[in-house]
Amino acid sequence: MARVSRRGGFTLVELLVVIAIMAIVAVIGFSMDGWENRSQAESKVQQVYSDLMNARERAITQKRWVFVIFAKNNNVYGYNIYLDTSPVPDGDGAYEAGQDTRVGPNWNLPGQIAMRVNNKQDPFQLNISPNGILNGTGTIYMQSSTPPQLNCIAWSTTDISLGTWDTNKNVCNPD
């Protein structure tokens, strides 16, 4: 009796198992992409918050006005921080482009994350007095495809705080 040999190949069950494993890996890959975007947005809002707190501390310790200028360039917000040094030596409490000393970042947000400075004209100037008082109130909101836990900064004349944006009320709720 002749023996029938089977050619090598894959069974239907084996193919289905491989397809299922590939689908699981793809789902994990997509969820990691959202996590990375959320993490990047939260990191950026914390950096802006840290820069604002440092600017306020600089105003108090150096007893000078500090100006934070937010501006949009090609649909992307950025900001610079300046120390009032014009006229020399003590400044005059007014920002003078090209005259005052830049002390903070020349910083732009990456393309996938957008910053919105609420109810303010572009460019917007935040003034911090030598005693740490901010001019008025405002909100910075970081927009991202996957919103992070902390995605906004709110300030009043005496406080700067991180928070979570409430899209229904259009406000930053401090955490």
What does this structure look like?
The protein has one helix and ten strands. It is of the alpha+beta class. The chain has one domain: minor pseudopilin epsh fold. Strands 1, 2, 3, 4 and 6 form a five-stranded antiparallel beta sheet that branches. The chain is elongated. The model has no long low-confidence stretch (mean pLDDT 82).
Count of alpha and pi helical runs: 1
Largest sheet: 5 strands, antiparallel
Low-confidence stretches: none
CATH superfamily: minor pseudopilin epsh domain
CATH class reads Alpha Beta
Helix content: 25-40%
Secondary-structure element order, N to C: HEEEEEEEEEE
Class by SSE composition = alpha+beta
Based on CA atoms alone, the radius of gyration comes out at 26 Å
How is the secondary structure organized here?
Blueprint: H1 12-62, E1 66-73, E2 76-83, E3 101-102, E4 107-108, E5 114-117, E6 124-128, E7 138-143, E8 152-155, E9 160-166, E10 171-174
Antiparallel strand pairs: 1-2, 1-6, 2-3, 2-4, 5-7, 7-8, 8-9, 9-10
Write a concise synopsis of the structure shown.
The chain is an alpha+beta fold.
